[in-house]
Amino acid sequence: MTYLAKPRLHHPALPVNKLGYTRRDYEGKVSTLCAGCGHDSISAAIIQACWELDLEPHRLAKLSGIGCSSKTPDYFLGNSHGFNAVHGRMPSVATGANLANRDLVYLGVSGDGDSASIGIGQFAHVMRRGLNMTYIVENNGVYGLTKGQFSATADRGSKSKRGAVNADSPIDLVSLALQLGATFVARSFSGDKRQLVPLIKAALAHRGAALIDVISPCVAFNNHAGSTKSYDYVREHNTAVNRLDFWPSRDAITVNYGEGEAIDVLQHDGSVLRLCKTHAEYDPTERLAAMDLIARHQAKGELLTGLLYLDPGAEDLHQHLNTVAVPLNSLGTADLCPGSQILERINASLR
Amino acid sequence: MKPTDIHTPDYFHKVVDCQWACPAHTPVPEYIRLIAAGRYGDAYMINWKANVFPGILGRTCDRPCEPACRRARVEENNVDAGGAGESASGQTGSSAKPEPVAICRLKRVAADYKDDIRPRLPRRAAVMNGKKIACVGAGPASLTVARDLAPLGYRVVVFDRDPRAGGMIWSQIPRFRLPMEVIDEEVGYILDLGVEFRGGTEIQSMKALLAQDWDAVFIGSGAPRGRDLDIPGRREAAKNIHIGIDWLSSVSFGHVERIGRRVIVLGGGNTAMDCCRTSRRLGGEDVKVVVRSGFEEMKASPWEKEDAMREGIPMLNMLVPKEFTHEKGRLTGVLFEKVKAVHDEKGRRRLVPTGEPDQHLECDDVLVAVGQENAFPWIERDIGIRFDEKWGMPVVDETTMQTTLARVFVGGDAAFGPKNIIWAVAHGHDAAISIDKFLNGEDVRERPAPTVNLVSQKMGIHEWSYDNEVAADLRYKVPHRDQKIALKDIKVEVELGFDPKLGFKEAQRCLNCDVQTVFKPKLCIEFDACVDICPMDCITFTANGEEKELRTRLNAPARNLAQDLYVSDVLKTGLIMAKDEDVCLHCGLCAERCPTGAWDMQKFFLELAHAGPACRPGVTTKTAIPVRKAA
């Protein structure tokens, strides 16, 4: 952490986005996490993604639970809506908020403790319901705030800083999300912003439940030789299945590839994901194949990263529930109280 | 690019823009920090050692450091953010533009508020070494030579045609800019070292001087001749046409106490500014400065132009004097031709007549301040000192300040034409080293290296021995005396100087550019934490490349080619670290965020060698002038 606020001064040639904001305008307060924490890199990636998307800060709601990861929303998007929920209960709050106001962009930030232990039930249901949100898990495999006990995502056989060996089976949030019906599933690494930033942009544009599991080494308690979530281990065992570029619309595409090198995927909102394959046998629209390959790599102790699964035709909770198309706060008296005739008709239909 | 070699003193020296730009390489951030800490005496001594005249320069320096100051570049496109402190700190009237730290006026704060520093000055030599040195002219160059050599045991005699020591410092700079006490004090420190001053002694013949038993002679006679303007009417109206620098020194001597009501000053340099402001104090009510060139091209420093205009003196540009008009032997005014600037295909500027009718400006007196010249009628051309035929200047080695006659050295304006005090001081230091080496039978071409020190400033976790918080304040203005009082008395100083409180605030604007970001590639584990926290996007981890191409693909484009890139060796992932030094705030956040200590903040202290045994190889004794190393 640093005691000083980051100076407001910025580079004289710092570019502005379409809204006239610099990247610095998307920052929050100065981080109080340990120096070198992977979570700070993720915060920086979120800032970069939102700036590149020309997102109006007041159109975004950031939600979190409890933990090191869940503190981070204070460190980015200082002008957005924020809600710090009870431990593991961020998905319920996000669901409620989203149902009330479907026009905001929802970004949930959670950790492996918050999502894979106390909040695993909530995690499971928000994925299977297809809530339109981006769910980022800052996954470091330990409870950093309570001095480094194994979390539920720690790999079996990995060692703690004090030498204890983990005997429990790990929960793989990516596999779980795929099984539960999430429509955008990705994994990345806090040390690789080039991969992470386009993933966050694509996830924010995705309509449906989008999970990004970000391996984020804990420098204080889980960055040693026996760890499988250290910077060195992840760098050595990381296999990226694809390289992603993201454009908000087809007209905005600025890079051309030769034929067969890349595939474009169009999303509901008109945005385009261009996937450049780096892994020959991988097709991210094939859910079962994805689950299979992830499991095979996991068995070898390797980590598959990139956009692992995408359903471009996904539906979200509002479509399932057939809710009203506008935020509830924009409904007037006439909408909410349509009159006795309508009531009569409803009553009649139920008789 | 090859990895940067930070062990060459020049690399980090260049990062300290102000020190690099200063001819005497004064350790600027170091003394500014001491001012902020209220250690004015220590701040003064750092200055005194490097530039000899802190109190004088703190009022009159040409400030080459300020245009170089990083603060102005950092505030570029940032004044909204930077101006946050504006209302709170009462910085009224500032036009919210990027400005350097007021380095020059902070120097004055050190001089104004220091305690008695005399015990810290070098002692008179206990034993004389038997060598005698004559200095011609008692200006800043000669006095610097005297200060450097007298404590070493040399017998230094300074000659001047004026009865006082100081040279142009006291004869040309008016008292309302530089009070007599300040000159007396700082010149006194030097003369008290056992330097003999022979005032009222004009050296008429170099041959005669050399015939005496001087072991070395230093020429610091300045550029004593003001250029004249030979146009019609000059001779007829001579009584009311004065050469600027001669007139200024007559004022300093007290020989001139009045001037006409309407005065025209011809010329756009700093002498012209001193002439017009002096006129305002000697009865000139309608004083104008008339310049051939445009306002921007005027040679005067911007702040001196500002000070003159504040005293109600208009600057009339693009007017070329054609004729002095007169009636019955009395000056009536000056006739000017109107011109405009035309640029030829090579971009060179020429002034051509606009064809409009000439303009006549009435006046009672004219002051001609159109330039200064060197004059060496007293140096015979057959004694072995070679002269440049074209310019009539002695041939001087730029490093050693030696002439073609081995025991004669030159410095200040006498060496390469009119410059300013700080250059004279730098020349003086160089000449003193040469003289000392020369008289010890050493090769003067072998120059001593500077003393360089690089020390970590880490005190604890996120604790540094310097104040790394970056102040948002804009530049503070130096308070001025009420004009009604200032214009009445030529001896009343206009600038009041910063008080300690304002001085502290201004000192806090300094970015501590001497506290360097030192990168250790072996410790780096490429977390990017420094990249994320850097407020100025200075740091990039990327593939190596040629400098020109690399500059284009950094996180922020490195367009300022005058500023270096700091490039590391190849890191574990095959990338390199590249840092653009241009707008680094030296806030140390990279070092605070780095979990492995790959970044460290280390104070770079560079001090030029001054004449003495340490400059002579084979002799290992401590330097003559002890200086307290500050934290």
List the helices and strands and how they pair.
The complex is a heterodimer of chains A (351) and B (631).
Chain A: H1 38-52, E1 60-64, H2 68-71, E2 81-84, H3 90-100, E3 105-111, H4 112-116, H5 120-129, E4 133-139, E5 142-143, E6 149-150, H6 173-180, E7 184-189, H7 193-205, E8 209-215, H8 231-237, E9 238-240, E10 242-247, E11 262-266, E12 272-277, H9 287-299, E13 303-310, H10 317-321, H11 333-336, H12 340-350
Helix pairs in contact in A: 1-7, 3-5
Chain B: H1 9-15, H2 17-21, H3 28-36, H4 40-51, H5 54-60, H6 65-68, H7 70-75, H8 79-82, H9 86-89, H10 103-113, E1 132-136, H11 140-149, E2 155-159, H12 168-171, H13 180-191, E3 196-198, H14 206-211, E4 216-219, E5 225-226, E6 241-243, H15 244-253, E7 262-266, H16 270-281, E8 286-290, H17 302-310, E9 315-316, E10 319-327, E11 330-343, E12 349-353, E13 359-362, E14 365-368, E15 372-373, E16 387-388, E17 393-394, E18 408-410, H18 413-416, H19 421-439, E19 451-456, E20 458-460, E21 463-464, H20 483-486, H21 500-507, E22 515-519, H22 529-533, E23 539-542, H23 547-550, E24 565-567, E25 576-580, H24 589-593, E26 599-607
Parallel strand pairs in B: 1-2, 1-4, 2-3, 4-18, 6-14, 7-8, 7-14, 8-9
Antiparallel strand pairs in B: 5-15, 10-11, 11-12, 11-13, 16-17, 19-26, 20-21, 22-26, 23-25, 24-25
Helix pairs in contact in B: 3-4, 3-10, 3-21, 4-10, 5-10, 10-21, 11-19, 15-16
Task: Give a written overview of the molecule.
The complex is a heterodimer of chains A (351) and B (631). With 351 residues, chain A is an alpha/beta fold. Helix content of chain A is 30%, strand content 19%. Chain A has a single domain, classed as Thiamin diphosphate (ThDP)-binding fold, Pyr/PP domains (Rossmann fold, 3-Layer(aba) Sandwich). The radius of gyration of chain A is 21 Å and the shape is globular. The N and C termini of chain A lie far apart (65 Å). Chain B is of the alpha/beta class and 631 residues long. Among the domains of chain B are: 121-224 and 374-439, 3-Layer(bba) Sandwich (FAD/NAD(P)-binding domain), CATH 3.50.50; 226-370, FAD/NAD(P)-binding domain (3-Layer(bba) Sandwich). Chain B is 29% helix and 18% strand. Chain B contains 24 helices and 26 strands. In chain B, the strands form 8 sheets. In chain B, strands 3-2-1-4-18 form a 5-stranded parallel beta sheet, with helices on one face. In chain B, a hairpin with an 8-residue loop joins β24 (565-567) and β25. In chain B, α4 (40-51) packs across α10 (103-113), α5 runs antiparallel to α10 and α11 packs parallel to α19. Chain B starts with 8 loop residues before the first helix and ends in a 24-residue tail after the last strand. The A-B interface holds A 1-4, 6-14, 24, 34-38, 40-41, 43-44, 191, 193, 219, 231-232, 235 and B 73-78, 81-82, 84, 462, 468-470, 472, 525-529, 531-533, 535-538, 556-557, 559, 573, 583, 585, 587, 589, 592-596.
